[in-house]
C-alpha cells in the first residue's frame, strides 16, 4: 500500500467523520470547528490530486475568512438547543424525502461518471506545463471566461445588495462622521477664559 | 531506506529552523524591552546577567513553572487547544521561507498562497481563546481582533497580489530571483504604496501597537488571553513574536530582495561577495523588527472605528488602484522590474 493511498484513506475517513460531527454535535461553536476540520481534510484530498492552488484557496477563503465570520456570529448566539429539538421528529418525513432525492441524484450522477473513468474524471490538467496554478489561470481566462465573469458579477451583486441592506438610515442609530471629526478646529473644542474675567 | 534518509534530513532542517527561531523570539522580547526602555529614557531589564542578557531565560523558566489556571465555566478542551491553534500555523509558515540561496525546507510552487492561508488561521486561536475563557474581557478582545484581522487580511492579500504580478510567480525563491540586479531593482520602488500597506496591515495582523485593540491593556485588561497563565500564555506570546518576525522577513523577501546583496550591480559588489545571503536577509529583517518596536514605543492606540475605516476605506481602494496601475506598467514592460513578460 502506497503512502498516498494511506493518506487518502485517513483523510477521507476524517472528512466523513467531521462532516457527520457538524450535524450531530450539540454545541454550535463545536459544529463550526468540525466544519473547519472537514474543510481541511478536503483540502488535503485536493492536494493529493496535485491541485495545490485549489486546496490552498479552499483553506484561505473558506477556513481563513468565511468560517471566521461564521464563528463570529455563532459565538454570540446563546441557543438552547433542547427547546428547538423537541419537535424535530415532525420534520422526519420531509427530511427523509430530501435525503432520498439527493441520494438518488448522486447515485445517478456517479453511476454515469464511473462507467468511463478515464474519459469522465479529470485527474490532471497539463496544458501549459505541470504548474497547476498556471493551467488553472489559463483555463479560467480562456475557455471558462464567461462563467468566470458571471460568477464575479453574481458576487458583486451579493456585495452590493448586502451593503444596501445595512445602509438603511435609521434615526435611532448613531454613526461616526469622520469628515466632521477631522475638520474640528481648536476653537470648536477649546475655550480660553481670560484671567480677569475669571476673577470677577 | 531512501525515504528514511530524506525524512532524517528534513527533521534536521526543521530543528535547524525551529530552535534558532525560539532563541530569536526570546531575544526579540529582550530587545523590545531594552529598545523601548531607551526610547522612553529608562534602562529596561538590567539585573539578570550582564546588561540583563539572561532576562528572557529567567522569563521562560518563570512561565514554565507557573500553574495553568482554567477558569470555572470555561470550555476546557477548547481553552487548552486555542494557544496551540495559535502557535502551529505561525510555525508551519516557516517551512516555505527561503532563508538563503539553497536553504528552504519546502520550495513549493504556491508559496505566497501557503503563507496567506496559514497566517489567516491564527485568528482561530484568538477567537476560540476569547470564547472558551468565559470572560467578557476576553470575549470583547477576540471579537475586536477577529474583525480587525479579516479587514486587514484583504489589504495584505492584495498587496501580495501586486508582488506576484510583478514576479510572475507564486514561488518565493523565484520572487527573490526576479528582483536581482541591485537596490533599485527590488520591488519596494515600483510597488511602494503596496509595501507601505503590506507593512501596516502586517502590524495590524499581529495585533501589535498601534493596532492592539484586541489586547488593549488599559481597556480590556489583557484582551483575549486575560485568563491564560503559565505555559499557555507563553504559547500566545511565542506566536505573537513569531508572527512579528515572519511579517518582517516576508517584507524583506517580497519588497527588499530577500537574500540578495544590496550592492549588486555596483562597484562594491566584489567586496561584499563573501557575505552569505542569509546575513543580508537577517539584516533586512532586523530593520523591520526594529520598526515594529519603534512603532510600539511611539504611537498611541488607534480608536476601533478608525482602524476599520483605515482598513476598508483607505487601504483597500489604494491597493486596487495600484494593482490596476501595475497592470499598465506590466503591459508596457517598464524596465527593469516588469521585463519578465515573454
Written account of the structure:
The complex is a heterodimer of chains A (200) and B (342). Chain A has 200 residues and is mainly alpha-helical. Chain A has helices at 3-24, 28-48, 52-76, 81-85, 92-115, 117-120, 132-141, 145-166, 178-182, 186-189, 195-199. The termini of chain A are far apart. Chain B has 342 residues and is mostly helical. Chain B folds into two domains: 1-65; 72-331, no CATH class. Chain B contains twelve helices and no strands. Chain B has helices at residues 2-39, 55-65, 76-92, 111-119, 122-132, 136-167, 172-177, 192-205, 217-220, 230-255, 277-298, 304-331. The mean pLDDT of chain B is 84. The interface between A and B is medium-sized, with 23 and 27 residues.
CATH architecture of the largest domain in chain A: Up-down Bundle
Form type of chain B: globular
Reading the helices and strands of chain A in chain order gives: HHHHHHHHHHH
Rg result of chain B: 21 Å
Oligomerization category of the chains in this entry: heterodimer
Biggest interchain interface, per-side counts: A-B, 23 and 27 residues
The tally of domains of chain B stands at 2
CATH class of the largest domain in chain A: Mainly Alpha
Structural class computed from helices and strand pairing of chain A: mainly alpha
By DSSP (H or I, 4+ residues per run), the number of helices of chain A equals 11
Helical percentage of chain A: over 70%
Residue-averaged pLDDT of chain B:
84
CATH superfamily of the largest domain in chain A: NADH-ubiquinone/plastoquinone oxidoreductase chain 6, subunit NuoJ
- The total count of strands of chain A amounts to 0
Strand percentage of chain A: under 5%
Strand content of the residues of chain B, in percent? under 5%
- Let me know the largest β-sheet of chain A: none
